[in-house]
Amino acid sequence: MRLPTPHLHRLLVLPLFIALTGCAAYSVVNSDRYSGSSSAVPAEYIPSPGFCRIWYKNRTPEQQPAQGDCDKLKQDVPENAVLLKG
To answer: Are 26 and 41 contacting, i.e. CB atoms less than 8 angstroms apart?
Structure first.
């Protein structure tokens, strides 16, 4: 059975979309102020499991502070930042 071209395109678009989005270099975390950001964060800047990082929305990835202890960092999250949990 041969599928008409429009049907074939529909069958190929979804797997292609999934494959391409899975290769993205950024991860999106929750929009809650104390658990993440709605902005894309480069994967290499996501904190390690068990650690957190304050992420400033108006700074480049290279200007972000280092990861640290979640209990300590969650007490000092400024208004222009979010707390990323690893």
So the answer is: yes
Handedness of CA 76, 81, 85, 86 (dihedral sign): negative
Specify the amino acid at residue 41: V
Distance in angstroms (rounded) separating the CA atoms of residues 85 and 32: 11
Among candidate residues 57, 17, 19, the one with its CA nearest the CA of residue 38: 57
- Looking at residues 64-71, what average pLDDT do you find? 96
- pTM over 0.70, yes/no: no
Nearest to 70 by CA among 82, 58, 57, 56: 82
38 Cβ contact list (under 8 Å, min separation 6): 28, 31
Q: Cα–Cα distances in Å, from 58 out to 11, 31, 36, 50, 79?
A: 40, 16, 15, 25, 11
